[in-house]
């Protein structure tokens, strides 16, 4: 059953024209891109659902705030506007701006983690995983088992399995510099973490005296799911739930290109002066001075407004309904995807979509190619190519449990009818799935673990 459409809670007064390239142009574009979606040019794409990162539309209030940017190198008014918004919306006393989320990761992991360390997670996002590896440490997934079952409709599939977490902590007692939980769990299908679970993780962290950080890129979406699915909080405002989530953590790492509604930006927030000063040297080395961290003053202003806008309940209700609507349309067409639909994206189960393509030939990336062919739509494979790891001894590819293809919904950017077009095209691919009989070989991969899918050159071969 498809729910009634939830109309957009905004008007569009500036438009960005887009065109649909013809079949020949698409084929040419695929070749030029080495069959990697990251290699496609935006002009060759009609609907771009590669990522919801930095691709949203700013409000008129954010555009107006841009004009108020104070570009002082140190102590700019714009920094204090951000600091005030962080305190009001999230409750943290300290904020360090960074140029985006992975820069916050570089500062946090580069400072707190040393070689041989273990970092327990529900599941880390790909750049987070890469940063941990790059510092010689290892992330350990402690997410609940339901996260790996695309058919399970557990309401909080991003939750940490507290038993798994304690076991890891007891086993590696002295080599755990921090615990981190990603909300929502991007790598596991944009699935939320319950407030109860965050409180439990926080209690475990306190018990063992380990700092607890949240990767809070999608904190407002997560808060909305808590409101919808965790009974005790049904009558709470989104803003209060978000604050309660933040209260569980010692600090957060944020890609502000997600929920905070800006096109570029990131930040670290923390509670104590000690943590703030521990992190600052690496900010100066890699980002810039403590009060701008790689961003212009105007960016900080837009971010301060975006932080306040992300807890708007009508906006968030529409956003989540849009994702659900796309899911319902795909469900009608029989397309297998991760249930229940997450906050920012639909994750199609590419292993079930193409059961005849072995995982080591990257079915999720084959699907991304086919969907582009069909409708000039760009999504991205998040499976063996993105998350496969090489066994250090044997050199063999260790395959991840999930083989997903993601369609990320940009914030306030596409209308419901755009999504109807997307659903139709994907269902069309699904109808001809048996005729798709090829796999992909990696012709080039960068020599850095964890970032293969961004830069790989691929080549189709017939199965
Ligand atoms: C996007 C993202 C990051 C990395 O942030 P960037 O702004 O892309 O550098 C980290 N964690 C999560 C959960 C993300 O979604």
Automatic annotation (TrEMBL):
One of its GO terms (molecular function) is tryptophanase activity. Gene3D superfamilies: Aspartate Aminotransferase, domain 1 (3.90.1150.10), Type I PLP-dependent aspartate aminotransferase-like (Major domain) (3.40.640.10). The modification N6-(pyridoxal phosphate)lysine is found at residue 258. Its cofactor is pyridoxal 5'-phosphate. Its EC number is 4.1.99.1. It comes from the Bacteria. Keywords: Lyase, Pyridoxal phosphate. It is an enzyme of class 4 (lyase). Residues 48-424 form the Aromatic amino acid beta-eliminating lyase/threonine aldolase domain. The keyword Cytoplasm does not apply. InterPro entries: ArAA_b-elim_lyase/Thr_aldolase, Beta-eliminating_lyase, PyrdxlP-dep_Trfase, PyrdxlP-dep_Trfase_major, PyrdxlP-dep_Trfase_small. The keyword Lyase applies. Belongs to the beta-eliminating lyase family. This is Tryptophanase.
């Amino acid at each position: 059953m498809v729910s009634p459409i939830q109309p957009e809670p905004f008007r569009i007064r500036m438009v960005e024209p887009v065109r649909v390239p013809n079949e020949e142009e698409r084929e040419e574009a695929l070749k030029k891109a080495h069959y990697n979606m990251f290699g496609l040019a935006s002009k060759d794409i009609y609907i771009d659902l590669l990522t919801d990162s930095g691709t949203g539309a700013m409000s008129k209030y954010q555009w107006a705030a841009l004009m108020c940017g104070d570009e002082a190198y140190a102590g700019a008014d714009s920094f204090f506007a951000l600091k005030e918004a962080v305190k009001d919306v999230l409750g943290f006393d300290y904020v360090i701006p960074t140029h985006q989320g992975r820069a916050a990761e570089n500062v946090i992991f580069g400072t707190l983690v040393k070689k041989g360390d273990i970092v327990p997670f529900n599941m880390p996002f790909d750049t987070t995983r890469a940063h941990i590896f790059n510092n010689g440490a290892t992330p350990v997934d402690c997410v609940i088992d339901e996260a790996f079952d695309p058919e399970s409709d557990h309401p909080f599939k991003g939750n940490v399995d507290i038993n798994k977490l304690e076991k890891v902590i007891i086993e590696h007692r002295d080599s755990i510099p921090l615990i981190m939980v990603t909300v929502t769990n991007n790598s596991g299908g944009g699935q939320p973490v319950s407030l109860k679970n965050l409180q439990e993780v926080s209690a475990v962290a306190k018990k063992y005296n380990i700092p607890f950080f949240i990767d809070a890129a999608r904190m407002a979406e997560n808060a909305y799911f808590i409101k919808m699915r965790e009974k005790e909080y049904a009558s709470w405002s989104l803003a209060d739930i978000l604050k309660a989530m933040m209260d569980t953590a010692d600090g957060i790492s944020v890609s502000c290109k997600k929920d905070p509604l800006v096109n570029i930006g990131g930040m670290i927030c923390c509670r104590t002066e000690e943590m703030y000063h521990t992190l600052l040297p690496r900010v100066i080395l890699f980002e810039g001075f403590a009060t701008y961290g790689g961003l212009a003053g105007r960016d900080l202003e837009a971010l301060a407004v975006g932080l306040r806008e992300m807890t708007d309940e009508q906006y968030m209700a529409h956003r989540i309904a849009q994702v659900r609507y796309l899911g319902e349309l795909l469900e009608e067409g029989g397309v297998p995807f991760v249930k229940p639909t997450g906050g920012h994206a639909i994750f199609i189960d590419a292993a079930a979509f193409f059961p005849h393509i072995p995982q080591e030939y990257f079915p999720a990336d084959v699907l991304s190619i086919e969907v582009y062919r069909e409708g000039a739509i760009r999504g991205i494979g998040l499976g063996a190519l993105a998350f496969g790891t090489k066994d250090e001894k044997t050199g063999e590819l260790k395959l991840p449990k999930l083989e997903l293809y993601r369609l990320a919904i940009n914030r306030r950017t596409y209308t419901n009818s755009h999504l109807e077009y997307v659903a139709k095209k994907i269902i069309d691919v699904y109808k001809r799935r048996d005729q798709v009989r090829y796999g992909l070989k990696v012709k080039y991969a960068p020599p850095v673990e964890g970032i293969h899918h961004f830069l790989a050159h691929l080549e189709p071969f017939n199965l």
